[in-house]
Fold this protein.
Amino acid sequence: MTVAPVRIASLVPSISELLVALGLAPLLVARTGFCIHPAEAMAAIPKVGGTKDVNLAKLRRLAPTHVIVNVDENRLETLQALREFVPEVLVTHPNGPADNLTLLAQLVEAFGDALPGVRERAAALAEALRAELARCAATPWPGERVLYLIWREPWMTVARDTYIARMLAQVGWQSWPAVEGGPHGAARYPVLAGDEPWLTGIERVLLSSEPYRFDAGHLPLAQSLCPQARVQLVDGELLSWYGPRAAQGLAYLRALAGAAQ
């Protein structure tokens, strides 16, 4: 029996990067315009729109055998449409740094034998992540109330059951507001009015580099929300992207939190 070659489309930027890190770039036949890392590998892969507005007609022509989607990144109607013409649709939904271990296992199950070295690269990434999680757990963090901003006009932040909030929790940073957004939907990223009473108790405001690209000009605006807080710009990719950035992100957080002690 002839087995059809594996043809992967990734509609999740961080997972596109992870697939390259696993040595699967030769099997990637489609990506979104937001899949930009690593740049050299992504340049050779056709784009099929954005994460929310996938060009399904173009994707169909590229004939993927597998498409990777994410609960937060992609729309439900996109997933439903994909299942009409894609043999295998892999749904991902990491909600914390340790969930990258499950993600790696999911990709190894699907593509571990597609090319040499995939399993070994996945094992190395898993080992690095476990080591960083252990370092975070072994440190007696003092804890801080943190506001992590991802957007302005309106201001938007993260619920406590999101990947970002659970990354922050690894170094004792408690994200506010004190809400959980549920498994999917807009409630995972609350909108702020700017006059919430709890804002006066925030100790640190983090302005992410994505999806809104905050810069130094936004520091005074954020400071006005929380006059007593320390306000700083942070690398949103390191704190929100899954895959190879997970261990790097934890090391980055440890450095940020350690500098404050």
In short: The beta strands are 8-10, 28-31, 66-70, 88-92, 144-149, 173-175, 204-208, 230-234. The two ends are 62 Å apart (CA to CA). The CA atoms of residues 146 and 175 lie 5 Å apart. The chain has two domains: 8-135, 144-260.
